[in-house]
Write a structure and sequence with these properties.
The structure holds two protein chains of two kinds. Chain A is an alpha+beta fold. Chain A has two helices and five strands, in the order ββααβββ. Chain A has one domain: Beta-grasp domain (Ubiquitin-like (UB roll)). Chain A starts with 27 loop residues before the first strand and ends in a 5-residue tail after the last strand. In chain B, helix 6 links the parallel strand 9 and strand 10. In chain B, the strands form four sheets. A six-stranded mixed beta sheet of chain B has the order 6-7-15-12-13-14, with helices on both faces. A four-stranded parallel beta sheet of chain B has the order 10-9-8-11, sandwiched between helices. Chain B is α/β, with parallel strands linked by helices. Chain B folds into three domains: 73 residues, no CATH class; 202 residues, 3-Layer(aba) Sandwich (Rossmann fold), CATH 3.40.50.1100; 100 residues, Rossmann fold, CATH 3.40.50.
């Protein structure tokens, strides 16, 4: 068996305890491992908001040390971080103004080299 | 060397430590690619006091990319993928005449060992890092060439490989990957979808995804193309280099490579002007350069140049900075021009390149027509992949002749028609 888990279990087997215990009807924000220390160890966090930007703002309010890692001091996205609504890059939608629904997933993903 | 040292086999080369390119925070060597402080990209830190070889020492070393090991991200000697690199640099006077430049050379990674693309270079460095970190599973997100390279190298080294590709890649690239027996995962979506998925896979599994969590070591392999160009030209630099851009990393590494050889005193010429090439159906880096700002606008790719179809290029900004700093430029070319570029390269040099090669040649033609390349320029074209992998793209453009009867008269009739 070569598929060993590392710092945390795979997304498939990750226990539901990692979800922030707020509400099951809120959009979920998925964080990369590198950001989980700034969110009390959570990989997924439920957040309130009508748009991607509002959901991220809600997350930043609850975990202030995450705030400067989600957007720069001008509120702009970092060039080496991509934010997805479900499977779509939000820059191809309406950016931080993109509307979110309660069962949506927002993912914060660091950049990847070409292939 | 002591007897004890001789008796102890070298298990692996030690990867160098890392530093964030954005904020400068240092990081221990490891399969990590993101700065924990600002999420910026990590890059290896080379000891500033390391002893660099001179021309004579380099010339005496084996003809592989590891002859430049002082500029690769390891301490000690590598143990994996030892024969990658050192592809031919071909003088191409007929292509130079067609482009209207003084001299032209083709850096021919279409015959790279073992998988016929320049991705063998980056996989060579990534797999040595994977070995050093004890990773038994490697993988990649790929537009095709990297899939071939990772699958081939993993098969040779006895590693399990998980290869993630868009579901609709060219058949030759899919089959040429599957032949090595990896776990091939065809993802419904674009390369950018595959990239996002692999970033999440690398985050969740103890796998070495070469262009994700081994990216800091992977990228360094690209620079060896610059070293080889300089040495194969007789320890000098061309005026101009044209290279294809997908994620944008190759342009950045070429710039660093030429600068490193100048800093080391191995070449004395000015650094070449760098020119980037993309397809109009996916040209976010060319458009960034033309707009003049500093923000990539991602695109949904639609081009036959699948190996360059990255709509959200991670190294696009650094590629544009390298192009601007060098005094170069970039061009985007449409699909018919790409096919014409493939044919021009083949008909003037005897080299059959893939669609990315067609992009590079067509862009060189466009840049020359616009006066960006001048008649006294000495130009190197970086041909990064083999035409046998993208036959689909040219099969309609190159009609096959009707068969003839096995009779001399039939050949005579053909010859008469041919004039």
């Amino acid at each position: 068996m070569t598929h060993r888990f590392t710092r945390h279990p795979s997304p498939v087997t990750r226990p539901p305890l990692t979800r922030h215990p707020v509400s099951v009807t809120m959009p979920t924000i998925n964080l990369p491992s590198v950001l989980t220390p700034f969110a009390d160890g959570h990989h997924t966090v439920a957040a309130t908001g009508q748009t991607v930007g509002e959901a991220l703002d809600d997350l930043a309010r609850r975990y202030p040390s995450l705030a400067p890692r989600l957007r720069d001091e001008r509120g702009a996205p970092y060039p080496f971080v991509t934010i997805y609504l479900n499977d779509e890059d939000i820059r191809l939608l309406r950016g931080f103004e993109t509307r979110v629904e309660p069962d949506d997933d927002v993912s914060v993903v660091p950049a990847v080299a070409g292939g | 060397m002591s007897a004890a040292a001789l008796a102890t086999p070298v298990r692996h080369a030690d990867p160098l430590s890392l530093q964030c390119a954005a904020c400068g925070v240092e990081q221990e060597p490891g399969p990590v690619h993101v700065c924990p402080s600002c999420l910026g990209p990590l890059e290896p830190v080379y000891p500033p006091d390391r002893v660099l070889p001179d021309r004579a020492e380099l010339t005496a070393r084996p003809r592989t990319l590891w002859r430049y090991r002082e500029w690769l991200p390891f301490a000690g000697r590598p143990t994996r993928c030892l024969d990658a690199g050192w592809t031919p640099l071909i003088h191409a006077p007929r292509l130079a005449a067609a482009l209207g430049v003084a001299h032209c050379w083709v850096k021919n990674d279409a015959v790279s060992f073992p998988s016929l693309s320049f991705k063998d270079r980056v996989v060579a460095t990534a797999l040595n890092a994977a070995h050093a970190f004890g990773l038994q599973v490697v993988g990649c997100a790929s537009t095709g060439n990297l899939a071939n390279a990772v699958a081939a190298a993993a098969a040779r080294e006895g590693l399990e490989a998980w290869i993630f590709i868009p579901h609709d890649l060219e058949a030759a690239k899919v089959l040429a990957t599957a032949a090595f027996g990896p776990r091939l995962v065809r993802v419904r979506g674009t390369y950018d979808d595959v990239n996002r998925l692999c970033s999440q896979v690398a985050d969740g599994f103890r796998w070495g995804i070469v262009n994700v969590n081994l990216r800091a070591y992977y990228g360094e392999g690209s620079g060896t193309m610059a070293f080889e160009i300089a040495e194969q030209l007789g320890w000098r630099l061309p005026n101009a280099v044209v290279a294809p851009m997908a994620g944008g990393s190759l342009l950045t590494r070429l710039a660093r490579g030429f600068a490193a050889f100048r800093d080391a005193g191995l070449v004395a010429d000015p650094a070449p002007r760098l020119f980037g090439a993309q397809a109009t159906g996916c040209a976010p880096i060319v458009r960034l350069l033309e707009r003049g700002d500093d923000t990539i606008v991602p695109e949904r790719p639609h081009t036959i140049a699948r190996s360059l179809a990255i709509g959200n290029p991670a190294d696009g900004r650094s590629a544009v900075r390298a192009i601007r700093a060098s005094g170069g430029w970039a061009a985007a070319v449409d699909d018919p021009a790409i096919v014409a570029g493939i044919r021009l390269l083949a008909e003037t040099t005897g080299i059959f390149g893939e669609t990315a090669a067609g992009v590079t040649v067509a862009a060189a033609r466009e840049l020359a027509a616009r006066g960006r390349l001048s008649p006294d320029d000495e130009v190197v074209l970086c041909i990064t992949g083999n035409g046998l992998k993208t036959l689909d793209a040219v099969q309609d453009a190159i009609p096959l002749p009707e068969p003839i009867a096995p009779r001399l008269a039939a050949v005579a009739a053909l010859a008469e028609r041919a004039g």
